[in-house]
Amino acid sequence: MSSERNSGLNALLPYAAWFMALTSVVGSLFFSEVMALPPCVLCWWARIAMYPLVVIIAIGIITRDARMKVYALALSIIGLLIAIYHNLLYYGFIPDSITPCSDGAPCNAVQIELLGFITIPMMGLGAFAAITLCLLFYKPEDK
Fold first, then answer.
1. Rounded CA gap, 117 and 81, in Å?
2. Where does the pLDDT of residue 124 fall: very low under 50, low under 70, confident under 90, or very high at 90 and above?
3. What fold characterizes domain 2-137?
4. What's the rounded Cα separation, in Å, for the pair 143 and 78?
5. To pair with 88 at 20 to 30 A between CA atoms, which of 45, 110, 128, 138?
6. Nearest to 67 by CA among 16, 14, 23
7. Per-domain residue ranges for the chain?
């Protein structure tokens, strides 16, 4: 019974990763296109890592391709590293003098603080961390 439950949970992990990636893409487009919040340089780099995840994970799910985990995990880890750096910069652990955000929107600008503490960089960090964990725990079935 326990192995059946674990296999059922395992089968849901790629769907959870895909849903989080899709939600992140829709959310980032909502913030920039509807709310007119300009993305900073680090947000653009995070988008470069996040947007393809929707397609890669979906194709992996549809084709039942076990290699999807490797491809998606590479992008999610890159995005996670960008998000960690962005949060360290946002919260002042990294000095402004070494920020890549010299043009356009500053990387440490307060644009949104939901519930007083949930920021755009924190949402990106949470999404990339959750996607990475889903992919790390996912065990593709052998064909």
1. 21
2. very high
3. Bromodomain-like (1.20.1550)
4. 29
5. 138
6. 14
7. 2-137
Give the tokens for residue 80: 């996670």
Model confidence pLDDT, tens digit, residues 37-72 = 888 888 889 999 999 999 999 999 999 999 999 999
Rg (alpha carbons) of the chain, rounded to whole number: 17
Strand partners, 118: 114
Q: 75, 47, 78: which is closest to 60 by C-alpha?
A: 75
C-beta separation of 84 from 121 below 8 A = no
What are all long-range contacts of 26-31, with beta carbons under 8 Å and residues at least 24 apart?
A: 27/123, 31/111, 31/112, 31/120
CB distance 10 to 140 below 8 Å: no
Q: Round to whole Å and give the CA distance between 125 and 79.
A: 8
